[in-house]
Target: TRP C-terminal domain-containing protein
Amino acid sequence: MARLHIHPVGLFLLFFGLLSWVVALGGLGASTKDCTQRAENKAASCANTYQLEWWSIWFEFILLVIMILTCFTVAFDRARHIFLTYLGMVTVLLTIMARNFITNSFTLINQDGKLFGTYRTDAYSAAAAGAVLLCITNFALIIFVGLGAAVPANPYASLSNTPAAASLQTGSTAPVEQKYQPSTYQPSNF
Model:
């Protein structure tokens, strides 16, 4: 059986991240559909509006899939710092995405008390919820991947009878010989 190179909670977080990604993808897709139905210059306007969001969503998906595929191999330990860097990058992008969707998801009410754009509000709310869930998941993954919460190389090492490595003695009272004399050089320019 393959050895798990990430804490089991970290593996759960990876799968929870995929579920959150589905929520964010659905909200982003609905928001893009709403944009193409409302905009005058549909292709250019919507492509510019949601360009960063689409890149962020697919960046997150690829990162989560690669982390899931490598968490049973030694490659996960080797790529730990790369994963941390990419998790930090995509978390920043998802935070911006969440802010954009949260600020645009307010419901507008006209003077008659009727709601404007409930579909748009639902789509924006779903995208914002998915992005916030992905940010929370990424922060937790940064903790589990970054703080070395992986399973130790030999989980049964504490059960063996081998003594621990000798520690260095500190606080010795023996005199220490100074190898170099202090400099007596004085610059003449001053």
In short: The chain is about 60% helix and 0% strand. The longest strand covers residues 108-109. Helices lie at 8-38, 42-49, 51-70, 74-78, 80-103, 118-146. The longest helix spans residues 8-38.
